[in-house]
């Protein structure tokens, strides 16, 4: 099942740069691992924003929730989840 | 270049069903043609909404605008356009 | 899987009463059938509003979407869908 | 009487983890006690959010207010209360 | 139990004046009857608005909902309901 | 003249409890004194909120403003003022 | 007492021009009469909007409400009322 | 040229009272000087708010901007600027 | 003086195409004439929207207001006006 | 390709003046360099706001994003990006 997720990151302005870097590095590693496993299907940056649009392919809402909660940047993100389904005009098999 | 577009459709409640069907049929044909050509990269339905999230791959903003204006349902849609770029954590070549 | 859905109904003020009654009657029959089958788990009215909060138990987002689209009042409703998951503090087996 | 409540929790980012854990533990114990007594009828997590939808069954608005004020996380929550009543199409005796 | 209700009335601009007058007259009679019985505790006009703030004293949410649904102007109103309880600093016995 | 006022209180999370208690105690004393003098006509708590709806009876806008500015919790409140007038359907002499 | 009022006018697009002209003419005459009597203290147009900011000087909220309800364009206006008082830094006697 | 400006002031809750007083005193002196010179045409307090509505008479947008930037409270204010013009129904020469 | 204006056009869905074409043609002619005279400094289309961002160079707010009111599409537009001034970092003489 | 960008700057109130000055100075130098190269096409100040409207001319969304991320004030800005295209009524060659 596919879910569209928008994540907006807001790191505290006084967070030490080393801590911010470490957080982003851990986030990147987890994101890439989840992309390799096929769970994090798409990941795009919004131009001019510290934010992304993502498409997740999960077996249940529970899996999606646990995944999002496990992100190192979760405490600093505002998250918006939209459940998706196949569009009747779509011709792309993998978009369902 | 990639653009994320949300389209919400609101047909007038008193539109004759035949006219609505014809509009949707023309829209579907154009959408599928643009998917086949690779311009309309992704197309998903929002659950419970007469709305979609789409990803377009175009050579310019002009091309995107002309494409959206040519949609048969354009006069009945509310459209939100967000320019995308490659996410530094993305591992998917085709998401750029 | 559980989804929380809010539906706000807005019938056109000039809809003939007989048509409105028929729509509501069809809606009621479908709602009750889906409650009996266990899909429409809960259904409450918001006080002072022509609106409801509902909990649906479905096997996929697709099933939820098709169900909502099939409601006779769908063309007259504004719908908001929120995916739910089990709360770590919940002790109620059926709330998952 | 039933009330629908949405609670969004926002702990200060600099709260010591031990204090946060203690708060959540106290909250969990109270939540489970109120579920056992039947007052906190339902409790669901919103996917991707540190937030819940709850259904409370209370004898009065006063009881609901005192209950919410007594939650250990109350100072850190944004709360939205919606009074519910039986839906005319509901067939579930316990949803009233 | 007390509930604070805001009602905003929007009559269609093309409603025949006689129909509007009759609706308002029926509304007034019901409002005054409910004030006499003590259920519609307070009723104020918002300056410059076709809107009111009201305080209702009812035995249940159900009673409040049925009352609001029975108002002749209900189909033309936007309604916002807020459950109230006694303020700890209040000295007025009847405000509870 | 009557004014409807909504006050939402937001004390800083790190305010020492003794200071918070003293502020609330001063606020309560002033609120009760103004109720006894008839200026603060009604005072209700919104269920689940650190907020109140109040009705003030003052001789001028100036009097209302000075009163609100003098509240010990004023620096911590968001305030919304709505001027009221007698509703044509009201039968309650004191609601004007 | 002074009140700041914003009025936004929205005439139906299909109103016959003669009717619109007559409404505006009646509105203008009343507005000028109320300016001459000193009640409608100031009247400005918002650039690019069919809207105005006005300052009214009235003896009571009741007087303000009756005045606004009597405007020929009232059924076509959205109105926002803000009670004013003398600013402590004002040096202009007539602004109070 | 006239501009309508709304200013909402939000001083940090932990600003030392002496600093706040000095800021307000400087603000008051500048405001009164600008009123005397005719630039700050009107100045009213919004009841119950630490906010004002002002009318400025300036020769250019540049002059308005420089004036607002020079206010001692500028770093603590949220400002909304609306350009005004003479209302066709106005009879007051000085409101243009 | 420069003003930034956003115009969103909403033609009624049932406007006869010939009337719509004539309106757009008149609008285009006026827009081009005002561009030639230097008053309508810039004009861009928002991608995917029937809307534009414009920069006007006028001698007064009055001139801007009269110009906007004279646009054939004015009755069908929502307009937002923002006064501009020279940015201290700008190096472009003509942007002031 | 042209993009319309609004930037609102919010420096922390307790940032040392020297640090703020240095940030603004670096920002100014980069802005002027980008103006000279033709990338930052226009730059205007919003009257009364610490904010600007800008027009960027870039070869891709990627270039725009990298440019915005490189601004010294980026961590303190709220940014809104709108893709533009040539308006059919524009006569200005350089506005495309």
Describe what this molecule looks like in 3D.
The structure is a homodecamer of 96-residue chains. Chain A is α+β, with helices and mostly antiparallel strands. Chain A has helices spanning 17-36, 61-69; strands at 2-9, 40-46, 51-57, 77-86. In chain A, a hairpin with a 4-residue loop joins strand 2 (40-46) and strand 3 (51-57). The termini of chain A are close together. Chains A and B meet through helix 1, strand 2, strand 3 and strand 4 of A and helix 1, strand 2, strand 3 and strand 4 of B.
Oligomer: homodecamer
- Counting DSSP E segments of at least 2 residues, the number of strands of chain A comes to 4
CA-based shape of chain A: elongated
Radius of gyration of chain A: 14 Å
- The largest sheet of chain A has its strands arranged as 2-3-1-4
Largest interface, per-chain counts? A-B, 29 and 29 residues
CATH architecture of chain A: 2-Layer Sandwich
> Structurally, how many domains make up the residues of chain A?
1
**Per DSSP, what share of the residues of chain A sits in E-state strands of 2 or more residues?**
25-35%
Separation of the first and last Cα atoms of chain A: 7 Å
Biggest β-sheet of chain A: count, sense, barrel?
Answer: 4 strands, antiparallel
Helical run tally of chain A: 2
- SS class of chain A: alpha+beta
Note poorly predicted spans of chain A.
Answer: none
User: CATH H-level name of chain A... which superfamily?
Assistant: Dimeric alpha+beta barrel
CATH class of chain A: Alpha Beta
